[in-house]
Amino acid sequence: MALLEVNHLDVRFALRKGEVRALRDVNFTLERGERLGIVGESGAGKSVAAFALLNLIAKPGFIAGGEVNFDGKTLNHMGERGLRRVRGNRISMIFQDPMMTLNPVLSIGEQMIEAIKAHRRTGTKAARKIALDRLRQVQIPSPEARLDQYPHELSGGMRQRVIIAIALLLDPDIVIADEPTTALDVTIQAEIMALLLSLCEEHNVGLILITHDLGVVSQVTQRMLVMYAGRVIEQGPTREIINDPQHPYTQGLINALPQMATPGEPLNQIRGSMPSLDNLPSGCAFHPRCDFIRRADGEVRPACVEQVPGFTVSGNCRVACHMVEELQQDRRLKEASQ
């Protein structure tokens, strides 16, 4: 059994105009020590999925269906007391902006010691020693001095290192990193990701990396999910998806990378924008933006407009696309006729 199993997860927000489905039938697993990437544009549902794992969806949002099973226990059916034993202890989270995560009126040491004592029966002196050790692991210079400093006294890269140190304080089984380098300079981003990767490998920690940066995902993760409009539309080994993307949306994301453009020419981009979750198109949610909606004869594929695609197995990947399913059927017919 996998360390983390997400089965048919459905998250909704109760608004005045009715319920909006932010996540629809999301399924994936994470093994101990495995690194999983979740990618997609803003509004795809990546962060909602991360918050749902720890049952941190704030009202008017709620988990409407499905299960999040961690180490044999169903988190979304667990009481607040039980969840407190998991959050920050066995599953920790790194948020986008460290200044929004760290308490500005407490020193770094006070915040780290408080986190340790909330989950461990230990004295202040022993907790401070653990905190100091974690700051050394994330390569913060003069860690003794940093413990007594406040968040505003540190640079952005230094604050993010502190956040990583706090995430690893209690030797968690899983770290969820939600856009961990968004607020940092490009020169610092690579250092932070390399540090996070090495620490997860050293401690055999499972990593869920949420990002829109396919370049980072290709270097850090072993498997990946591609999300669109609240649904997983492609999943499989990272290298296989990056080298041979099956879904037109995944192809568009990869083609939009700067290195894929001709020098001196505009960057490639996916036309249109992510649909509003309260007004999703019929059929495949991506069909209004899809370049492959028409067949070779110029006719629109009716299924793309009328039916939500199921998953088709392609190699080691699963893809929710009518075109891929059609190509698979054509291939089977050709093989049968030979």
From TrEMBL:
Subcellular location per the Swiss-Prot or TrEMBL entry: Cell inner membrane
Top-level taxon of origin: Bacteria
Single GO MF annotation: ATP binding
Broad class of enzyme this protein falls into: translocase
UniProt EC number: 7.4.2.9
Catalytic activity from the UniProt record: a dipeptide(out) + ATP + H2O = a dipeptide(in) + ADP + phosphate + H(+)
Topology of this chain in the membrane: Peripheral membrane protein
SMART domains, alphabetized: AAA
Domain ABC transporter: 6-254
Keyword vocabulary terms for this entry: ATP-binding, Cell membrane, Membrane, Nucleotide-binding, Transport
Chief location: membrane
Family: Belongs to the ABC transporter superfamily.
Alphabetized NCBIfam families for the sequence: oligo_HPY
Protein name: ABC-type dipeptide transporter
Species: Halomonas piscis
